[in-house]
Amino acid sequence: MATNEKPKVAFFDFASCEGCQLTVVDALQTHLDLLDAVEIVQFREAMTEKGEDYQIAFVEGSCTRKSDEERLHRIRKQAQIVVALGACAHTGGVNALKNLHPLEDVRRWVYGDKADWYETYPARPIDAVIEVDAFIPGCPIDREEFIRVVKALLLGKKPSIPDYPLCVECKLKENVCLFQVGKFCLGPITRAGCGAICPTYGDGCEGCRGLIPNPNENAMKDVLAEAGLTVEEIMARFTMFNTYPLQEAKR
Amino acid sequence: MSLMILDKGAVAPLVNALMADYRVVGPQARGPKFVFDTITDPSQLRLDYNTTILPPKKVLQPPEERLATFVRGAKPQVETVIEAQPTVLLGVHTCDLHAIQLLDKAFSQEYPDAHYLQRREQTVIVSLECLEPCDEHSFCKSMGTLTADEGYDLHLTDLGASYAVDVATERGAELLSKYGTAREATAADIKRLNEVLSAKWPRFTYRLDFDAAELPALLSTAYDHPLWDELGERCLACGSCTNVCPTCYCFNVFDEVDMSLAEGERRRRWDSCQLDEFARVAGGENFRKARAARQRHRFMRKGKYLYERFGVLGCVGCGRCIRTCVAGISIVDGFNTIYGSA
What we know:
The complex is a heterodimer. In chain A, β3, α3 and β4 (81-85) form a beta-alpha-beta unit. Chain A is α/β, with parallel strands linked by helices. Chain A is globular. In chain A, 38% of the residues lie in helices and 10% in strands. By secondary structure, chain B is an alpha+beta fold. Chain B has helices spanning 11-21, 57-60, 94-108, 114-121, 140-143, 170-179, 187-200, 215-219, 227-234, 240-243, 291-310, 320-324, 331-341, and strands at 2-7, 23-30, 33-38, 64-71, 77-80, 87-93, 123-128, 154-158, 162-167, 183-184, 251-257, 263-270. Chain A binds chain B through residues 31, 33-34, 36-37, 147-148, 151, 154-155, 160, 163-165, 167-168, 171-172, 174-177, 179-181, 187-189, 212-214, 216, 218-220, 222-223, 226, and chain B through 30-33, 35, 53-54, 58, 63-64, 233-240, 243-244, 254, 256-257, 259-261, 269-270, 272, 275-277, 289, 291, 324, 326-328.
């Protein structure tokens, strides 16, 4: 990005709630100087104009149908840098929960007798379809992390996303461990970076930022079982945001 | 230097007076646990605490701090930032006091760490004798940290209605005379103090199965012990054991720039040898990839490596790593297992 021109940025959405893009809008309100650093040419959530000339593409949502693939390839072809924005794009997110059931059942469940009208297949993160240069985890993303990633990209650096578990942030904040007050938490195997926001407010981590590298899943299951969860309850927690990576790891 | 008596009723006025000139940090309640934090009202101080989630090392080496500011570009500039202020650290148990003495060695030898050392210099330590164990996990008696005769400016022992105050430094004496109202101990006070100190020892029953002085030699035979693989199976690699350890001091350094990309700051944050990426180097090689190897490293640091480097064991028996481990890994059980199979 060593030109005097401001880098052109575009935002795209696939299967998602658009909450991560809303977080970006939110971040733009508190960090107005972001708009001095980049030029946004396409952002359906926030503007009418649609420029197709961009260098950085932020993609929210997972790939859930054949036509998504073509659109993702078009984005990849144009953009120098593609960033997966949020859990759906990064790990498949909650969308991938449907992968645990027969596709036909899921379609009937959601669309009823109109199921044949809608194209859909198992949900995947976008890096299952195209090469991704960086990712911003979370459901939704953390706005300060979004800003840090943008700054890193502008500097031509690889964004640094924590690869250590949530327990680190939680402990450094000196929160009382939820396991010590009879609650459950996926913090020991979940990627940090959110400031341990859920445990800080007393709710166990649900793993929205994805798993750390080399997570000890078996030990985590043992700990949850020891704390009183049934196998079904443990699996419900594990699969909430991480169905896709867990299934891929088994392949 | 001298032994003084501070009535318990005089503690709050002392803290109040100190707050005018110092940041006063002491144990406070947080939910069902305790933490060291800045006192804003003397009633927050809980000298009856058992143990804290993080040790008081957080006052001397904060979990995250700014090291320098910089300006990028054609004429780059770097300015060191030292975030230190006059601080009174109240209620430090003797295990943590021993740990601070180890940190003092670690941060002053070879490459003196100005950030730590300036904070240390500006911190007056008022420690507190433990008269009973924090809970079932503390094994300070084994580690020789059940009491202390140095490392503090003032040292308190609870005599019931008052504290005996061992005044160990000029700084401590000044603090007490300027901000507090204490009287000199009488022969009766000294007798009472000796009774209290003698009575405490039998209460501390949790110990290693062997003399801790044997640890370095014992561990030198244990590099290939099957224990490490067993711990590697159970360990979640969450890093909590080292983050709560009063003698762990590893940190990671990183830069943050502002939106102009022209200015920024260099910061550091606690790091942990238990984390997957800790021993990863340029090129992607990871020298301690297996959780078993990382746990072995922790045990070796505590029982052998730090001893070889600083002449004191790296474990002070506070029990925090045992309390915090959701997988139930115990350093006492680990050391005992190795001893039992040697």
